[in-house]
């Protein structure tokens, strides 16, 4: 008996067991990026404050905290890439840099007093649903455990760095880091550097570091499509106008919104429209790169839009510097001193892995066990699926923001985040009003939704454009993007539909 009491006391101290009937919190939000902070603000605005946010980093910000590499900036205009309910009249540029976006998010969190709900340096290791109690228990690597009626996963689609499947990575004796884990203590000045990858991260980093390094080798496997970026400082006059006559800022946002929505026509309605963008990009390449050999290397052989279209004014000029070389030979291995291709060895002091993120496989970076101990990542082994990217059958009271097929190729993710948060709030309000303990989307609803979704996706440039991208999993299934306009998604997430859920009182 004494022994049992001791064991119980030990467990109680750790609180990793799942016997509790009433949870400590109503909601646990996991992740404090744009999605998590938006969720927290909306809960507070609705007068609900019995929630916490668990964040693995030592600061909020999510992707805008992680991606602090030189040159980091948003590729969607800031007046659209910001919360609709918290406009910022004083964005410095059309496309603001990382620091300014992080600062904006911190100000939003402070304004709505979200910080006091934040548990920083608190990485989730597993979450388990106790079906009898309809409670989620969340364990963390700090040893602390929490419980809540509902968990909301705001862990983001682009939060887990993908290391390249190149042999010998571990043998390199120099400095090596991923773009989302930038080592600020390492001084690149005067060094010979390899950058592997030519996606959205690389095209910002290369122009930023090329002037300081001695030599830069850019290892390109597939050339990206690039269009000039209409980026400029926003004048003080415009900032004043936006501040004192808010409808002018709203009008500007409205204009940006509809310009981006128009682009969706090419991505998801009629792929032929993309030819126009292709012509614009080719003309820009021709104007920017005079050397024919280099131009040939930089010319993509798939339809524009199939991979993310990149915006840059300084990438092509950077590639033409004397100390920059674009290497298209295939990488055989990485060894102690550098990169060995099928043609030669490139000795380097540092290797920057601009190789993207695990966006389509094993997306949730911890164990999630739902009803009957079903594992979420296991359930998603053939491709992640949810209903409206938000609810998953078998996982009651679990919601996702930026879940499967909610990404965009044409506009601001904040629009999708707000729509999903709105939907979750509708559900929470409904459950509260009807005294409902758990809500789980039905299998049939989820299956029908995904059958339709994949039919739509088959018509898009992402599936028919002749490329493989991070939008797809290893089987080529697109599990990341929404194949439509954002207003369609907003319409579908406007009301919680109880008929599509199994509800337990
Ligand atoms: O990653 P990516 P990213 N050997 O996956 C190459 C957002 N974002 O971090 O195309 C050699 O696009 C790979 O080659 P390939 C944005 O949504 C936004 O740049 O597969 N190369 C590719 O070139 C973006 O789309 C912003 O043939 C290898 C590169 O690595 C997303 O994040 C800024 C390789 C990966 O490109 C991801 O962008 C930054 C290998 N073994 C990011 N493995 C802005 O808002 C991979 N590659 C501006």
The CATH architecture of the largest domain comes to 3-Layer(bba) Sandwich
Largest sheet: 8 strands, mixed
What ranges have pLDDT less than 50 throughout 5 or more consecutive residues?
A: 1-5, 7-19
State the end-to-end CA separation.
Answer: 37 Å
- Return the CATH topology of the largest domain: FAD/NAD(P)-binding domain
Give the overall form. globular
In CATH, what is the class of the largest domain? Answer: Alpha Beta
Rg result: 24 Å
Quick description:
With 505 residues, the protein is α/β, with parallel strands linked by helices. It is built from 15 helices and 20 strands. The protein folds into two domains: 2-159 and 359-504, 3-Layer(bba) Sandwich (FAD/NAD(P)-binding domain); 169-230 and 272-353, FAD/NAD(P)-binding domain (3-Layer(bba) Sandwich), CATH 3.50.50.
Can you tell me about this structure?
By secondary structure, the protein is an alpha/beta fold. The protein folds into two domains: 2-159 and 359-504, FAD/NAD(P)-binding domain, CATH 3.50.50; 169-230 and 272-353, FAD/NAD(P)-binding domain. The protein contains 15 helices and 20 strands. Strands 1, 2, 3, 4, 5, 6, 17 and 18 form an eight-stranded mixed β-sheet that branches. It has a five-stranded parallel β-sheet with strand order 7-16-8-9-12, with no helix packed on it. Strands 13-14-15 form a three-stranded antiparallel β-sheet, with no helix packed on it. A hairpin with a 4-residue loop joins β4 and β5 (135-140). α2 runs parallel beside α12 (413-434) and α6 crosses α7. Mean pLDDT is 95; it is low at 1-5 and 7-19. 3-acetylpyridine adenine dinucleotide (N01) binds at residues 73-75, 158, 164-166, 179, 196-202, 204, 219, 221-222, 308, 331, 354-357, 470.
């Amino acid at each position: 008996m004494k022994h049992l009491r001791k064991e119980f006391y030990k467990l109680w101290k750790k609180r990793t067991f799942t016997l509790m009937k009433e949870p400590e919190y109503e909601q646990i939000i996991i992740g404090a990026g744009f999605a998590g902070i938006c969720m927290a603000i909306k809960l507070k605005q609705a007068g609900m404050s019995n929630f916490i946010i668990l964040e693995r980093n030592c600061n909020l910000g999510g992707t805008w905290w992680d991606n602090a590499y030189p040159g980091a900036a948003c590729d969607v205009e800031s007046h659209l890439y910001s919360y609709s309910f918290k406009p910022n009249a004083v964005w410095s540029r059309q496309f603001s840099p990382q620091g300014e976006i992080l600062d904006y998010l911190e100000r939003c969190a402070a304004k709505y007093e979200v910080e006091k709900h934040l548990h920083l340096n608190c990485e989730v290791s597993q979450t388990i649903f106790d079906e009898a109690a309809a409670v989620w228990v969340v364990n963390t690597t700090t040893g602390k455990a929490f419980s809540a009626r509902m968990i909301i996963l705001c862990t983001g689609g682009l939060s887990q760095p993908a290391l390249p499947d190149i042999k010998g990575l571990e043998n390199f004796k120099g400095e090596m880091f991923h773009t989302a884990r930038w080592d600020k203590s390492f001084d690149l000045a005067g060094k010979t550097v390899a950058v592997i990858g030519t996606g959205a991260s690389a095209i910002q980093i290369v122009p930023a570091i090329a002037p300081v390094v001695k030599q830069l080798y850019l290892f390109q496997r597939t050339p990206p499509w690039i269009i000039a970026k209409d980026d400029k400082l926003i004048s003080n006059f415009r900032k004043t106008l936006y501040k004192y006559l808010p409808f002018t800022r709203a009008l500007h946002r409205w204009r940006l919104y509809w310009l981006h929505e128009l682009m969706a026509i090419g991505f998801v309605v009629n792929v032929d429209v993309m030819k126009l963008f292709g012509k614009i990009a080719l003309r820009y390449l021709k104007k920017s790169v005079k050397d024919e050999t280099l131009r040939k290397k930089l010319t993509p052989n798939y339809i524009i839009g199939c991979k993310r279209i990149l915006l840059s004014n300084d990438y092509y000029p950077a590639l033409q510097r004397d100390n920059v070389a674009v290497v298209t030979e295939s990488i055989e291995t990485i060894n102690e001193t550098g990169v060995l291709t099928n043609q030669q060895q490139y000795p380097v002091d540092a290797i920057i892995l601009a190789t993207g993120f695990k966006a389509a496989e094993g997306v949730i970076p911890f164990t999630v066990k739902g009803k009957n101990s079903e594992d979420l990542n296991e359930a998603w082994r053939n491709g992640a699926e949810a209903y409206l990217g938000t609810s998953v059958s078998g996982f009651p009271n679990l919601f996702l923001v930026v879940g499967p097929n909610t990404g965009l190729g044409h506009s601001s993710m904040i629009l999708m985040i707000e729509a999903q948060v709105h939907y979750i709030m509708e559900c929470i309000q409904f459950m509260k009003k009807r005294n409902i303990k758990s809500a789980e989307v039905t299998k049939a609803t989820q299956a029908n939704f995904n059958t339709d979704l994949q039919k739509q996706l088959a018509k898009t440039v992402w599936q028919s454009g002749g490329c493989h991208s991070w939008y797809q999993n290893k089987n080529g299934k697109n599990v990341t993007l929404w194949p439509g306009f954002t207003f369609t998604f907003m319409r579908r997430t406007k009301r919680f539909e109880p008929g599509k859920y199994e509800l337990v009182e």
